[in-house]
Write a structure and sequence with these properties.
By secondary structure, the chain is of the alpha/beta class. It folds into two domains: about 5-95 and about 210-245, Rossmann fold (3-Layer(aba) Sandwich); about 110-205, no CATH class. About 35% of the residues lie in helices and about 25% in strands. It has helices at about 25-30, 70-80, 110-120, 125-140, 155-165, 185-200, 215-220, 235-245, and strands at about 5-15, 35-40, 45-55, 60-65, 85-95, 95-100, 175-180, 205-210, 220-225, 230-235. It has a six-stranded mixed beta sheet, sandwiched between helices. The longest helix has 17 residues, at about 185-200. The protein is globular and about 50 Å long. The two termini are about 40 Å apart.
Length: about 250
């Protein structure tokens, strides 16, 4: 059983050179993201997430809505373990898989085959697990003999196919996504869409940040609207999207 429980969770980022920053930049941060304040030591801090309290369980498919800077990516990185709460309690039970920054860890001088092991290791797979899935990854990527060439010789589309093929071989209990992935030419997109849907169906909890009303309606059973690092609304997809995007247009 997978679960996520947040109780009054906050995330603060200290700004050590705050005195050198212009008022314009500071006001821009307030307008587009967290709130500026000071900690107990008098340091300037940006509060990216404030007093988040919610719980997720098996079967939840949650959309994170909000403007750029509202805290969606910070929340995803908190869930994935990149950040720790500054205060409050965050309890995550279940194996986590992340499809955020799927190209992270790809080395330009290494071959596609070597990068499969590099990227797989970043996803938490052992060398033996990667070897077991190696043929499947190579076949799905459709890279052919290029799999043994340095990735600096790849086109942008080939890079994406390699990264996607490795990243979607996992089957985690909790899946984190920053927008729905769409990669490659039309032929590959069909296969990628099928594989992504299979991955989502196999996971117990999905948390996806998105700006797509259609994706929320078709994929999710819950939506959380973040604004300035706080939960503004938490409810059904219909309720939250109607408040966030406005009433749906009549068909």
């Amino acid at each position: 059983m997978a679960s996520i429980v947040f109780d009054q969770v906050c995330v603060d980022f200290p700004i050590y050179n705050a005195s050198a920053r212009s008022l314009k930049k500071r006001l821009f941060q307030v307008a587009t993201g967290g709130q500026i304040g000071a900690d107990t030591n008098g340091r300037v801090v940006v509060r990216a997430l404030e007093n988040l309290s919610f719980s997720l369980k098996d079967g939840d498919r949650v959309a994170l809505l909000g403007h750029n800077g509202a805290g969606k990516s910070t929340l995803l990185r908190l869930l994935s373990g990149v950040y720790e709460p500054s205060s409050g309690r965050a309890v995550v039970k279940g194996e986590i898989g992340s499809l955020i920054d799927i190209g992270f860890g790809i080395d330009a001088e290494s071959s596609g085959r070597e990068n499969i092991y590099l990227r797989g290791a970043l996803l938490g797979l052992t060398r033996a697990e990667i070897t077991k899935k190696l043929d499947e990854i190579i076949e799905f990527s459709e890279l052919g003999d290029f799999i043994d060439m340095p990735t600096r010789t790849y086109s942008a589309g080939m890079h994406l196919r390699l990264a996607f093929s490795v990243s979607t071989v996992i089957r985690p209990e909790i899946l984190l996504m920053d927008e729905w992935l769409s990669v490659g030419d039309e032929g590959f997109k069909v296969r990628a869409e099928k594989r992504l849907n299979e991955l989502v169906e196999s996971t117990r909890i999905l948390v996806i940040a998105t700006h797509s009303r259609a994706l929320v309606a078709h994929t999710c059973n819950r939506a959380i609207w973040l604004e300035h690092g706080r939960v503004k609304m938490d409810g059904s997809p219909d309720e939250v999207t109607s408040a966030y995007f406005g009433p749906p247009e009549p068909e």
